[in-house]
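User: My advisor, Dr. K., asked me to get a structural model of this assembly before our group meeting. I'm new to this, so sorry if the format is off. These are the inputs:
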Amino acid sequence: MTELGDYLATYAGKRVLITGGLGFIGSNLARRLVDLGARVTLVDSLIPDYGGNLFNIVGYEERLRVNIADVRDPYSMRALVRGQDLLFSLAGQVSHLDSMQDPFTDLEINARSSLSILEACRHENPDIKVVYAGTRQQYGKPRYLPLDEEHLQLPTDVNGVNKLAGEWYHMVYYNAYGLRTASLRLTNTYGPRQLLKHNRQGFIGWFVRLAVEGREIQLYGDGQQKRDLCFVDDVVDAFLRVGASDTANGEVYNLGGQAPITLLELAHLLVEIAGQGRVGLIPWPEERKRIDIGDVYSSYARIQAALGWQPLTPLDVGLAQMIDYYRQYHQHYW
Amino acid sequence: MTELGDYLATYAGKRVLITGGLGFIGSNLARRLVDLGARVTLVDSLIPDYGGNLFNIVGYEERLRVNIADVRDPYSMRALVRGQDLLFSLAGQVSHLDSMQDPFTDLEINARSSLSILEACRHENPDIKVVYAGTRQQYGKPRYLPLDEEHLQLPTDVNGVNKLAGEWYHMVYYNAYGLRTASLRLTNTYGPRQLLKHNRQGFIGWFVRLAVEGREIQLYGDGQQKRDLCFVDDVVDAFLRVGASDTANGEVYNLGGQAPITLLELAHLLVEIAGQGRVGLIPWPEERKRIDIGDVYSSYARIQAALGWQPLTPLDVGLAQMIDYYRQYHQHYW
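Assistant: The format is fine. Below is the predicted structure of the whole assembly, which you can bring to the meeting.
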């Protein structure tokens, strides 16, 4: 047991706000928090194609509160942070491609809203704990692997810049005002309740959908790019540990997967688990090649040392669970 | 001679846009460019207390064009970048204290406007060269000295975060679209035409004013914090080298001073050069102590190796020139 002690027990009765709470990670976190006895409010604006989905909380509708609002609305956020013990800040525009098409919307949602929420917390609820979802995209093209938190941040797309800014407002508000903030830099998260409607939010969800539909998983180039994947239950556990720990205040931690895997290996594994689909190789589309960053995977040594976190779910187990989920519920996702 | 060759000669006949062109560095750069035969347009909105001052271009009014506009206005900027060969992006909110009081204005001016100007360039004038003014404030509290470009960016105030974001949009637009961008991370710049009206834009201008007025220069704590100072003519030379060099595209360079100096030494030097004033020590005000970063000075080795730049003006020579300027023209500055 770490200094955290029984961190799960600390959530009983806690008032918790989750922005992006109807989305992939937000809804998985919400369900877990409700099970732990927390009083959970979800904030989500259900922007089409972003990932928010009322089906994600099916079975939990009566045990939590859903507040439809946009994190870009500072007045709503000021009202919503009042009286909360914790805020998990998961609302975001997460498509790198969309951030290049419409950089201003990405800036508003990922950067400006962070600042606005932090101002709301500072003025309305200075004792709140805020946990932000950053991304390994902030590092850009790796200079060395695995990426650790000492790696320079050299983002290669507008989304990476705005997530970086969003994260660092949190660090500034910790340093300047003592607001208890922390950030997790997520790697490729996968699991039930992920958006699978389109392919603009990363490869993993889309590959799973293709496997479930028995279609061809197309890889760019030779498919030898390595990635790490982290199952959503493990990501939720990381948020719970950081939320419960004052050691984490003012800190940034990478999450990571158990071991890097090539996209080709992943695609074959998915086809094997699904028992259907196939794998094909196609040339790089120019607009994706431009912002591609080669192999990328992260070290989670810092959060392991500080909070005892590690990714526990074997990849084949997590993928099987995800495939089962979408076989059963795909009509709610595409 | 570096690969740059006669970089000054390349500016003859060039169409150059300078945002923040009525400000401290912008106006010094503008005067130099006019002398080199460039066709210069200044963009400035003359926001009170920001540093824009029509007196800064006295004697040059007929040899350049002044366009009053705000960089936050995307329509004006789209029109203004058309037909330009170079853009020096110097408009900015530069007060760290103001960025904490009003973080959204800082975000709009330093981050969002950068993105908006880059979008304007990409669509209206993709061959333009864009040189951005970053700041050593992006590094935050130094982990080692001197700061080089490999130092992590750990900004300690909102201004540092927004300048960081503003800079990295430039890097993204280079990587993704081939837009020829570069950034200089400025240290403490000093010299004629600097804002001396208030003390919220850094210590150096304010100290000079106190010396010129024969007042007491008050230092926080023991005055042993080290800083580096760079004379504005040297900073202008760095912008001219970067603007003329394709080697600099996609690059970030620190500027730096000749040697670090303690604030106490600097204050005594100013009193000595001015022949008046005095030095006093006072306790740290809490709101400044919170965002203070201790000793800080930068290495300029990278730009020296790449473009042959180094700070040439001895501190006592630069300060004497600055003091003479304000003795003569103070009525236009405070």
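One thing worth pointing out at the meeting: Chain B touches chain A at residues 100, 103-104, 107, 111-112, 115-116, 119, 150, 152-158, 160-162, 164-165, 168-169, 171-172, 175-176, 290-291 (CB under 8 Å).

User: Perfect, thanks a lot.
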